[in-house]
Structures are given as structure tokens and as C-alpha cells.
């Protein structure tokens, strides 16, 4: 571990006790669920470990068995948030192949509804996500999920147009992920009406970007 890391980052990256039994896994889920509820309730204020323990109905000592501090809890929440996107995109891959632009537009709308909900329900986690992106030691956590998401976007486009080349599908997947994420982060820092308008703009950009490659009428 690099000496240049600050103390909080070093502690957050230290190994924690891994749940080996179903009972332990349920305890970890209770801790993470309590932390997520508190982050939503408290907005910009980070919940204390004591508050998380109390909301989870546990002692502080029980929480410390699994997480060294609140930063480690938030980091695990971020991982959980990142891991929710692949299954949302996979739903569109599993859906019947759209045969025209209007059907594809409806599929895009369904995806935007699902992914937008993930952003809005977890808006208080965005500072954690941004911190991961800006930290060279934590960035690989996000990079791993990003690669999966790009691959799924590419697979979705090739589901719509099986003739689409891998290289083109991957390039479009990168743009879909990056533009969607950055614009939503901007929107979340504004009011809800602005967020919705930005969401509509991103959807229009997506459609303009990928439609020429899908051979849909």
C-alpha cells in the first residue's frame, strides 16, 4: 500500500472480516441497509458508525467486526450500487429484439427509467463514487464494473443489430456509459426538474448516437 494515501483511505482499504456464514451475511446486509437509509435521510451529512449500528439494531462492536469505520461501509455501499447496473442492462438484452426505431426507443426509455431510479435513490452516494474515481488506488474498483457495463451495452446493441462490429459496439458502449454517468452526476447536483431535463437530453443523445448503427426503420 502506498505511503502517500491519507489515513482514512488506508483504513478503508484494510481487510475486514468477511462473512463466512449466512447469519454473518445477513448482519452485513443489515449494516449496509441501515447505512443507506441514513445517507438518504441525512443528505450531505455522513452517518456515524454509532448511528448506523443503532439503525441496524446492533452494537457498535458488532459493526466493527465487519467494517473498520464508516468510510469502509460507504465504500461497500458504492460497490453494491455499481453492481446493480449490469442486471438492469441485461434485462434489455433478454427482451425481444426491437424491429423498428420506435420499438428501440421504447426499450431505451425502459432502461432510462430503471437506471435513473438507481441514481435518484442513491444520490447521497455520489460523492463516494466521485471519490473512488479520483483516487488512483480506489479507481480499479470502478474500472472493473465499468468494463462490464461497456461490454453489456455493446452486447445490447449487437442484440439489436447482430451485424454490428465488435469494435464499433464497444466504442458506442463507452460513450453511452460515460455520457450517461457524467450528465446524471451534473443533474443530481441541481434540482429535480433540471435532472429530468438533462435525463431527456441524454436519452436524445443516445438515440442520435446509436440509431445510425442499428439498421432500424
UniProtKB/TrEMBL annotation:
Pfam families hit by this protein: TetR_N (PF00440)
Protein name (database record): TetR/AcrR family transcriptional regulator
InterPro entries recorded: Homeodomain-like_sf (IPR009057), HTH-type_TetR-like_transc_reg (IPR050109), HTH_TetR (IPR001647)
DNA-binding region per Swiss-Prot/TrEMBL record: 48-67
Highest taxon in the source lineage: Bacteria
Disordered as annotated region, ranges: 1-25
Comp. bias regions, Basic and acidic residues: 1-17
Domain named HTH tetR-type: residues: 25-85
Keyword DNA-binding listed: yes
Record organism: Mesorhizobium argentiipisi
Keywords: DNA-binding
Amino acid at each position: 500500500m502506498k505511503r502517500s494515501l491519507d489515513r482514512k483511505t488506508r483504513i478503508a482499504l484494510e481487510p475486514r472480516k468477511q462473512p463466512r456464514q449466512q447469519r454473518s451475511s445477513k448482519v452485513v446486509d443489515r449494516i449496509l441497509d441501515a447505512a443507506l437509509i441514513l445517507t438518504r435521510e441525512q443528505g450531505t451529512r455522513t452517518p456515524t458508525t454509532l448511528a448506523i449500528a443503532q439503525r441496524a439494531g446492533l452494537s457498535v462492536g458488532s459493526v466493527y467486526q465487519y467494517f473498520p469505520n464508516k468510510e469502509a461501509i460507504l465504500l461497500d455501499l458504492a460497490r453494491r450500487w455499481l453492481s446493480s447496473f449490469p442486471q438492469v442492462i441485461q434485462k434489455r438484452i433478454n427482451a425481444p429484439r426491437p424491429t423498428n426505431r420506435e420499438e428501440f426507443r421504447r426499450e431505451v426509455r425502459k432502461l432510462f427509467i430503471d437506471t435513473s431510479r438507481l441514481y435518484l435513490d442513491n444520490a447521497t452516494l455520489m460523492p463516494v463514487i466521485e471519490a473512488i474515481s479520483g483516487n488512483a488506488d480506489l479507481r480499479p474498483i470502478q474500472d472493473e464494473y465499468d468494463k462490464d457495463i461497456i461490454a453489456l451495452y455493446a452486447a445490447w446493441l449487437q442484440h439489436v443489430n447482430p451485424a454490428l462490429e465488435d469494435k464499433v459496439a464497444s466504442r458506442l458502449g463507452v460513450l453511452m456509459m460515460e455520457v450517461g454517468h457524467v450528465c446524471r452526476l451534473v443533474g443530481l447536483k441541481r434540482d429535480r426538474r433540471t435532472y429530468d431535463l438533462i435525463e431527456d437530453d441524454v436519452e436524445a443523445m443516445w438515440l442520435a448516437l446509436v440509431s445510425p448503427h442499428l439498421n432500424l426503420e
